[in-house]
Amino acid sequence: MSTAIYSHPDCRRHEMGSWHPESPARLQAIDDQLILARLDGLIEQRSAPLADTASILRNHSPGALALVRDHVPAAPGDYYPLDGDTSLCHYSYQAALRAAGAAIQATDDVIAGAVDNAFCAVRPPGHHATPTEPMGFCLFNNVAIAARHALEVHGLERVAIVDFDVHHGNGTADAFRDEPRVLMASFFQHPFYPYSEPEPITATCVNVPVPARADGEAVRKLVQEYWLPALHAFQPQMIFFSAGFDGHREDDMGGIGLVEADYAWITRQVVAVARQYAQGRIVSCLEGGYELSALGRSVVAHLKVLADLE
Fold it and tell me: How far apart are CA 201 and CA 177, in angstroms?
């Protein structure tokens, strides 16, 4: 498989304070593990462009865009708080445009056949950002913007978003709640931030709550019982991952006990669906994952499956 990694140095310039877990060190940890796994020379690295405002506005209101664009501090080292968890620094708007731009460019390249699939090593993450407001470390919803791009620009009729972050992707769910062209499948620790109430499972909403201390066996069972039947029935023409690795048992941001082999197994199941219905087309975007070693190792496991390098 031809796999590319999309990123940009601007994504490391966004930061919310030295204490904050969503830090530039996350991307360095991924790079370090790629080198240790000897994947850095086997997977192409591509530069993320800046997203244009029209692309952001396909998923976000003008007010949500302005809230980020118009409140970045003028001076490096200053911060503008959006909520108790999320702040802007001088470089945040540029970084957010790069993160969304990576997802859009990856979508273009995968659909064009330039690469088979892609991983966007970007920050800030996106899946908590709703159409009307940033929240939960997230400024713009990178996966939702890319899915909108696939639908509206490329004319795809069905796309799926698979979210394996420990936190519910409430922003993605809000964006596509009444959109029959998008299937969202996720699991998430419950009760837990962002304290979303579980919704009924439908043909296009398969978001399954799991209790704290759920392990890999429990998660694999729900993927088999809920995700895979829905994905096969939906027959997506493209699949997006919201790839959050904070459900790793070493990551104290959450309370789920996954390990690298579980992320590889989940990826393998979804890759098989993509090959059957979507010409193998997958774009994966980094979400959470805050224990640096576990994050890097888990991304490597995910990428080995995408690139067929296991």
Answer: 12
pTM more than 0.90: yes
- Helical segments of the chain, H only: 25-36, 53-57, 62-69, 92-112, 142-152, 170-176, 216-222, 228-234, 260-277, 292-306
Task: Find the catalytic residue in 60, 128, 149, 190.
Answer: 128
Assigned superfamily of 3-306? Histone deacetylase domain (3.40.800.20)
Q: Which amino acid is at 131?
A: P
- Give the Å distances, CA to CA, from 305 to 78, 239, 248, 295: 41, 15, 18, 16
In a 3-state reduction of DSSP, which class is residue 238? strand
The β-bridge relationship of strands 87-88 and 80-81 is antiparallel
Q: Parse the chain into domains and list their residue ranges.
A: 3-306
The H or E element containing residue 159 is strand 159-163
SS3 275: helix
Report the C-alpha gap between 235 and 280 in whole angstroms.
12
- CB contact at 8 A, 259 and 164: no
The residue whose two tokens read 């994050």 is: 295
User: Phi/psi at 18 (nearest 5 deg)?
Assistant: -65, -20
Q: Which residues contact 262 (CB under 8 A, 6 or more apart)?
A: 216, 219, 220
As averages over each run of 10 residues, the pLDDT of the chain (310 residues) reads 94 97 98 97 96 98 98 97 97 98 99 98 98 98 99 98 98 97 98 96 98 97 98 98 98 97 98 98 98 98 96
With CA atoms as reference, report the closest residue to 162 among 242, 230, 218.
242
- 116: closest CA among 51, 53, 44, 64? 44
* Residue given tokens 């790069």 in the structure block: 98
Whether residue 190 lies in the annotated active site: no
Q: Apex CA 275: angle with CA 240 and CA 180, to 5°?
A: 45
